[in-house]
Amino acid sequence: QVQVVESGGGSVQAGGSLRLSCAASGRTSSITTMGWFRQAPGKEREFVGAIRWTVRSTYIADSVKGRFTISRDNAKNMVFLEMNSLKPEDTAVYYCAARNFVGIMTNPRYDYWGQGTQVTVSS
Questions:
Q1: Percentage of the residues of the chain whose pLDDT score is greater than 90
Q2: How many CA atoms lie within 13 A of 112 on its CB side?
Q3: Which one-letter DSSP state was computed for residue 105?
Q4: Of the candidates 114, 111, 120, the residue with the CA atom closest to the CA atom of residue 96
Q5: Which of 54, 56, 71, 92 is buried most deeply by CB count within 10 Å?
Q6: How far apart are CA 60 and CA 8, in angstroms?
Q7: Nearest to residue 48, comparing CAs of 25, 18, 74?
């Protein structure tokens, strides 16, 4: 089993930045890919991006490309979502997820999920 916990959410004005963190614990050696998702009120969950756990490969959704960056620190078992030039439409609960199977980077299926962290962007 793998546990993931997000942190770093908060309120920010449009144009600002936030850095979300995701700490993985448990059988971290089984992780192949970590992902970030978000869900705004009344909307479906959206896949934001993913990063491979041991090789250099990342994916960022077109909707946030150029503003969001995903990185990791394997020594600390952590993944980060750097969010810049934030817009009110980025307001959502952001979730971190982990999976054991490889799959393609755009595959939104994940095995383990965090509880989410709220990001609110005001205009």
A1: 98
A2: 22
A3: T
A4: 114
A5: 92
A6: 19
A7: 18
Query: CA–CA distance from 61 to each of 28, 42, 78 (Å)?
Result: 25, 20, 20
Confidence of residue 22 (pLDDT cuts 50, 70, 90): very high
Residue with tokens 């810049």: 84
Q: Can you list the alpha helix ranges (DSSP code H) found in the chain?
A: none
d(CA 52, CA 118): 24
Query: Region 26-32: what's the mean pLDDT?
Result: 96
Does residue 37 contact residue 46 with C-beta atoms inside 8 Å? yes
Q: What's the pLDDT score for residue 12? A: 98
